Amino acid sequence: MFCNILIVSSLLAVVHAQQVGTFQPENHPPVTWQRCTSKDNCTTNQRSIALDANWRWLHQTGSYSNCYSGNTWDTSYCNTNIDCAQRCALEGADYQNTYGISTSGSQVRLNYVTDHANGRNVGSRVYMMESDTHYEIYKLLNQEFTFTVDVSELPCGLNGALYLVAMDVDGGIANGTSNSAGARYGTGYCDAQCPRDVKFIKGLANIEGWQLSPNNSMSGAGNHGSCCAELDIWESNSMAQVLTAHPCDTPTNTMCTGDACGGPHSSNRDAGPCDPNGCDFNPYRVGNASFYGPPNKILDSSLPFTVVTQFITNDGTSNGTLTEIRRFYVQRGITDAQPSASLNGLSGNTINSEFCIAENTLFQGPDNFARHGGLAKVSEAMAQGMVLVMSIWDDWFTHMLWLDSAFPPQEDAKKPGVGRGECSRLSGDPQQLQTSNPNAYVAFSDIKVGPINSTFNNESVQTWPASINPGILVVLQLP
């Protein structure tokens, strides 16, 4: 993700804790997903989701007093990373009433704003669980990942995201100091932005060096960041969507310090051990403005649709190295391939090394993707297994313009790579969104994982030419 969202609440603090409270039982909402071996042979897995620790109430052990309120730590109670880890407790969650999170069968619904007895919650981030104490680990080399999504109520400036990160399967209990909460309470988050707004990293608090956000009264950043490889299968709203791969020098969870973290909280965004921008495929950004959006587009974002992502290896086995990421969409019984890029100097409709090099050259990027190992490093993370994350968030740093508008906003939208979507450069202010669109939500359902071409109807796929004309299509028969 481009950056992180925090919960807004008058009494429930926004924190990442290691000790466990006893005031609210932690009951993970149930959800199902399917493992397929062929189109007609899928097995349903009974699973659950867990709320990320950054959204939970952090309080003094044995007391209702907060350890962290607004964007400020209570330094009179604890003032070091070790002390706060040992003296602050992470509480269980009332998923629906406090956080606007609900499940039904295979569906996970995340509401944007939820008013409750103790204040207001904004956004959320949840993880798929394999058990009550461990995250589900997905190994997707030579596999495809399929899900259905409803983004019809997500306006400009919001992001309903489904992605993978190389977190510790137990939430860091085995590797962390004083971490008794673990995956059950959503600990251990990391991504390629090396976020420094995470309140606890590897079992230690992030209070030392904590600086308040200049524009978000509920956020801040500590000295430490939490880094790991990230695979953004889906970041979107009703106006724009993007698929992005983010490599890191060390794919699994590592802790960084200060400006050496890079990402949004550092003076040099590109200074960290990961690629914060990644190699991305946004149909609009690569020249296909007619493909995705409201009803007049080919893929109608006002209705649910299914997204299929295939991870192709060099030898066609799960032991190979990732060389290509392919994308298909299914809506109204019609399967569309990802449209081809339509810019001079950029072609193709998949993410591969050639595409990433050409994209970086055309868009005049810093070449972080290649510098941090490219698809080979993403492949290392995938081989070890990654945790599935689903979230809804707004963006205090850039107002989500990097996803759905012109970014950087001062650049000419006609310059290659600047135009990302049709949203206004003035859109996306979180304060305005929380007032104007509190009922926004995203819903993910029907997650399926299996061998290539096992989770969707691939018998007749429409492929759109580089210059999209809805009246012209090519039907491709896949093997």
Automatic annotation (TrEMBL):
Native organism taxonomy: Eukaryota, Fungi, Dikarya, Ascomycota, Pezizomycotina
Going by the entry's taxonomy, the superkingdom of the source organism is recorded as Eukaryota
InterPro entries referenced in this protein's UniProt entry, alphabetically: ConA-like_dom_sf, Glyco_hydro_7, Glyco_hydro_7_sf
- As given in the record, the signal peptide range reads 1-17
Catalytic activity, reaction form? Hydrolysis of (1->4)-beta-D-glucosidic linkages in cellulose and cellotetraose, releasing cellobiose from the non-reducing ends of the chains
Q: Which GO terms describe its molecular function?
A: cellulose 1,4-beta-cellobiosidase activity
What is the protein name stated in its UniProt record? Glucanase
**EC id:** 3.2.1.-
Pfam families named in the record: Glyco_hydro_7
